[in-house]
Amino acid sequence: MKKKIYVTQPFLPPLNEYIKYLEEIWDCGILTHNGPLVQKLEKELIKRLQVNNLIATSNATMALQLAIKALNLKGEIITTPFTYIATIAAINWEKCTPIFVDIDEETFNIDSTKIEEKITKKTSAILGVHTFSNPCNIEAIEKIAKDNKLKVIYDSAHGMFVNYKNKSLLEYGDISIVSFHATKLFNTVEGGACITESDILAEKIKSYRFFGFNEKKDIVTHGTNAKMTEVHAAMGLATLKYMDEVRKSRREKYELYKKLLSSNENVKFQKINEESHNYSYMPVLFKSENILKQVLKILNDNNIFPRRYFYPSLNKVKVISTYEDNLEKAEDIATRILCLPLYNKLKTEDIEIICYLINQIAYRDS
Ligand SMILES: Cc1ncc(COP(=O)(O)O)c(C=O)c1O
Fold it and tell me: Are 64 and 203 in a shared domain?
């Protein structure tokens, strides 16, 4: 293949529609500091997602840090090692310790049956990740948290526009965070948000995001700078109306991949709930790392660049964790998983070529 195919390609709205928002910025001269477009984006997202509070941030990593701070978490936070480094970086940055629990081999989410054995006197929260937008076992996590008086944060970086039991997935936990990074389903180039039902937590997060100021510009707390800019909000506003279309097209492509790889015995898929999913990733689990490496090679040789999300299992990365336990499932799955290209403009024939190449390798190895 001559053109390069990467794991993803950001959705870009028609340029003239983005420019209209830029003209508004040029007219009023406000670039940042909770300007009119950030406020408009927050309002539109609150309405669309039917959530109580949504506070836009500069990115999801900062949103996680603000969430940990707003809940005043200390000590140990129970989480998954099968996630992006940002989840653990935020915990460490807020001077808490990540305590890893193994994952469920079918959903790739934290295994809720193994959480309780990791709770100690120092545990302050459970931080679940809805991996590739697949909801965690929310009922079990909520029960454990209630029984043990723990807070719950969901890293729902991948979970935009997913409904779970008739409400937005982002409405669960004390606070959920989401990413609007360029690689995500809905993007503001860089960006993210904290979502919470609690007005008190929302006010805290707003102050933390803005150096510790309240709305009257009194300094009321310690803060940082986690504001979204007007230029980023403009991108979100221009993009929002295309999201149903984008999700639908991604779902079709996801299903085509599944169909074309369905008879390949060396390939497995994440167990998902088709309605509670946004099809932002196309994770494929190979029978062995050896097959994965051969697939990577043949795809790369053909200018196709999937990604090893999330490799390695983060409990194995010594600079961020001194955690000693073996986490059998996460360590194993991390070596065998590959996210295939999936984006709005990806063509049917590209998916056919990718699957053809994968089937060549996998069959040869088996
Ligand atoms: C699970 C998870 N959490 C957090 C983040 C961080 O998001 P951001 O890049 O918006 O800071 C990512 C980014 O990909 C992610 O995959």
Answer: yes
**Which CATH number is 259's domain given?**
3.90.1150.10
Three-state DSSP state, 339: strand
Q: For ligand 1, is residue 7 a contact (CB within 6 Å)? A: no
For ligand 1, say whether the CB of 181 is within 6 Å of any of its atoms: yes
- Pocket perturbation via mutation, ligand 1, pick of 8, 61, 156, 280 by most ligand atoms within 8 A of CB: 61
What's the number of domains the chain is made of? Answer: 2
Domain boundary residue, one of 205, 240, 275: 240
Ligand 1, residue 184: give the atom nearest the CA.
Answer: 14
Residue 80 alpha carbon to ligand 1 centre in Å: 14
Average pLDDT over residues 182-188: 96
Give the structural domain span for 153: 15-240
**Atom of ligand 1 minimally distant from the CA of 61:** 11
Q: How far is the CA of 39 from the centre of ligand 1 (A)?
A: 23
What is the Å distance from ligand 1's center to 152 Cα? Answer: 18
Q: Is the pLDDT of residue 365 over 70?
A: no
Determine contact, residues 116/143, Cβ cutoff 8 Å.
no
Most distant CA pair in the chain, distance: 67
- The answer on pLDDT for 1 being more than 90 is no
Q: How far is the CA of 198 from the centre of ligand 1 (A)?
A: 23
Nearest to 127 by CA among 159, 174, 163: 174
Model pLDDT for residues 148-180, shown as the tens digit of each residue: 999 999 999 999 999 999 999 999 999 999 999
Q: Dihedral of the CA atoms 5, 8, 14, 15 (nearest 10)?
A: -80
Q: Is 225 found in the same domain as 271?
A: no
